[in-house]
Amino acid sequence: MDDVSVPIRSNFLIPMFLLISFCQGSAAYLTVNLDDMLSGTPVQYREVDGAESKLFLSYFSQLMKVEGGVASGFTSPEPETYETKLLHVSGTGTDVVVQQVPIDVSSLNNKDVFILDLGMKLYQFNSVNCGPFERMAGSGVLEKIVALRNYEPEGINIDGEEVLEIEEFWAPFGGVVELSELPDPPEPEEEEESGIRKLYKVSDEDGSIGCDLVEEKDGENLSLSLIEEDSIMIAVANNEALFYIGSGASQGERFHMNFKTAEILETIGLPWNARVTQVKKDGDTSKWDELFS
Question: What GO biological process term is on the record, naming one (predicted)?
């Protein structure tokens, strides 16, 4: 492959989206190589399935996540190969996500939009309390699937209690269920802000990931003088981790860090889906600089 020359800029962003765990190694490898191609200037964001940031969602007119495979693809409506799907359309404002969910009553609720895809017939169930953005997003998905199948399937919209009269919709669920029996959708967790800030140094001297606490402050900025340029440092604030890649960190160390991010988060007491931002000295460090003095 010929070398590719890329103009150096300081405002590149690389979101690494982890949808399935076994792709994490490939994602880590490709992210490090892309970062090198862009001269190490991008800010990297780790995005986890089900906990996508507003920034990541803004890249898509509509984010849709479905199971793959030739036999179950959207363009294969034949009865002998087609697998019935249930799509869940949810979100607030313009941050709407479409995701395939199990065909079970527990997947339904009275707040969102659902599309039951039977192959040659698709039902869009607009629940009693669904919002206008979810309804429009659901209609867009419905129209897209119908178009991919040469406009042969029938698309049917059903609102609120109208769904109780359609036995075909309920057949995959084992029979009609009263809407009052549907589960409530999970409430989004509110992030509590904390004044505590911590600074860690990442080490892997014996081949395993370790994080040594360098400094902890409550209501004060961390000390910039404690940053070691030949190391990988982590600043933690408000349940978010900011990884600082020192100029002396090797490509192997950066790959190992990307691959072991979940393990690192556990070590420093953060959940596996915590927000992670990665910066370098020569890139945009404004978010990192806010935590130091």
Answer: actin polymerization or depolymerization
